[in-house]
Fold this sequence. Notes:
InterPro entries: AAA+_ATPase, ABC_ATPase_HisP-typ, ABC_transporter-like_ATP-bd, ABC_transporter-like_CS, MetN_ABC_transporter-like, P-loop_NTPase. It holds the Pfam family ABC_tran. Helices cover 37% and strands 23% of the residues. By secondary structure, the chain is α/β, with parallel strands linked by helices. The longest helix has 16 residues, at 186-201. The chain is globular, with a radius of gyration of 18 Å. It binds adenosine-5'-diphosphate (ADP) and magnesium ion (MG).
Amino acid sequence: MTEPELAEHPSAEGGPAGVTITGLHKAYGDNEVLKGIDMSVRPGEVVCLIGASGSGKSTLLRCVNRLEDPNAGTITVGSFEATDPDVDLDAMRRHIGMVFQQFNLFPHLSVLENCTITPRRVLKQPKEDAEAEAMTQLRRVGLEELAQRRPDQLSGGQQQRVAIARALTMRPALMLFDEPTSALDPETVGDVLAIMRQLAEAGMTMIVVTHEMAFAREVADRVVFMDQGRVVEEGPAAEVIGDPQQPRTQDFLRRVLNPTDVDIRD
Ligand SMILES: Nc1ncnc2c1ncn2[C@@H]1O[C@H](COP(=O)(O)OP(=O)(O)O)[C@@H](O)[C@H]1O
Ligand SMILES: [Mg+2]
């Protein structure tokens, strides 16, 4: 989709939303998972969040749409104060699309039905309108011809593209991706990344947790490296990935970029 097209179809918020996170803390029992995160994303910006497993990336994303309740700190998403106890969570979540490693499609519904169920139930859209919008988004991800199929008749990459189309039917102002290609066969990863690149170019605000360093380097405006619940390094993608300054970032990238380069002291 080109930028003028996106302008014709603004998000429900009226445009891409920015995100501001200040002093975010989250613990599970005495396991402190987020230890004071400060991070901001400008409207239309693409930020890739990288870091080792267990560093708190998913928890951070889940705090943004309040699937988790932070212990301290503030988060704003566009005009919503996500951490305000009185925030209208349903209204806020309508503006936030989330795509997970597992696609979470309804197996008994067609691709088209998977894409219309939320607009029909939550936005009370008439069936025809919801289907027209779903077809627009399925076309955008190149799957309009598979609209009548069931999820188990699609490849993993196609299912993930349906999950993206489904999120886009709500005209989100922010998209959160949590390792969207980690569960895919290698040959279908590229198609999903291509859709995400298109979405970035169309001006969507995106926070993307990923291990795809080539994608991050090419598409992200900024890269944030997290380790053990803290932001250790952030900056333009070319700097953080191409010329990391912190030893922990260097170590992480060495492992990710050279998986067979095993240090026998590990
Ligand atoms: N619902 C939960 N209950 C208890 N501990 C959790 C829960 N979710 C995550 N954790 C713990 O929080 C830490 C960070 O997890 P996570 O945010 O999933 O990291 P990442 O996405 O970077 O791999 C891990 O130690 C994990 O075990
Ligand atoms: Mg995770």
